[in-house]
Specification:
It is built from seven helices and nine strands; from the N terminus they run βββαβαβαβαββααβα. It is an alpha/beta fold. The strands form two sheets. The chain has a seven-stranded mixed sheet with strand order 5-4-1-6-8-7-9, sandwiched between helices. A two-stranded antiparallel ribbon has the order 2-3. Strand 4, helix 2 and strand 5 form a beta-alpha-beta unit. The longest helix is centred in the last third of the chain and has 20 residues. The C terminus is likely disordered.
């Protein structure tokens, strides 16, 4: 049996920083909730076989209705989110394991990162097959500084060695589940763990980098909504003029 490629989408956030009174993943942009924009990226990619979503429990029925309305057919199940983002991911991974094997590839992605490309999904899958892991990153373009007190700069690390981790973050299903289970025994609250990359490195695992693009934003603030709207227009321009990503002036991948 051929290995599967599985998307795990976590959409359990409350949207407090957005200040909208509605979880940010359900805010509508261009006639669709953000979570649907994200799910469509994986729905339309031929390499993706199944999708599992972790969602705030109070919004599961709403999401089910949206999935039917927008004809998202690859969603196998929606599970309740947990107390933290990592809890939510663990719940979805555990559900995915019931119908899949350790060597299936899982792509872990934020429900509010709706600007990745199909090419990036394919590259992440290729990287896992080659290296056992793949974390989407972009080089750091701003000057980073370290400050212990938040008031004064203590040091300025070299920018050429720094990257910003994004998503998807991808691993073999058995490897990432094993990592979660190890951490949960000693650190059930996932203290100090901000994402799958940091968890795997904390356990001493190798993590390979796939270069993403600067347009792969996480929609968390009102300003991000305006950027996302601009990204939709950018994509529509590509499609209208038949440009590939490499041909569009100002390509954000560079």
């Amino acid at each position: 049996m051929m290995a599967k490629n599985i998307a795990v989408i976590f959409a359990g956030g409350s949207g407090a920083r957005m200040g909208a009174g509605l979880p940010k993943q359900f805010l509508e942009i261009d006639g669709k909730p953000i979570i649907i924009h994200t799910l469509e990226l994986f729905e339309e990619n031929d390499s993706i076989d199944e999708i599992y979503v972790a969602c705030k429990e109070d919004y599961i029925k709403k999401l089910q209705k949206l999935i039917r309305r927008f004809c998202i057919t690859k969603v196998t199940d929606i599970v309740p989110g947990g107390k933290t983002g990592q809890d939510s991911i663990y719940n979805a991974l555990s559900r995915a394991k019931k119908g899949n094997g350790n060597r299936d590839i899982v792509l872990i992605h934020d429900g509010v990162r709706p600007c990745i490309t199909s090419d990036l999904i394919d590259e992440v899958i290729r990287c896992v097959k080659e290296n056992g892991s793949a974390v989407t990153c972009t080089p750091m373009y701003e000057t980073p500084v370290v400050s212990e007190d938040g008031g004064f700069v203590d040091s300025v690390p070299p920018r050429n060695k720094l990257y910003t981790a994004q998503a998807p973050q991808s691993f073999y299903l058995g490897d990432i589940l094993e990592a979660h289970e190890k951490v949960r025994k000693e650190n059930p609250g996932y203290e100090g763990i901000v994402d799958s990359c940091s968890m795997m490195k904390m356990l001493g695992k190798d993590v390979a980098i796939v270069e993403g693009n600067r347009g792969n934003i996480k929609v968390t603030t009102p300003e991000d909504l305006y950027i996302f709207k601009a990204m939709i227009q950018y994509k529509e321009t590509q499609e209208a003029f038949g440009f590939s990503q490499r041909e569009v002036p100002g390509n954000l991948k560079k």
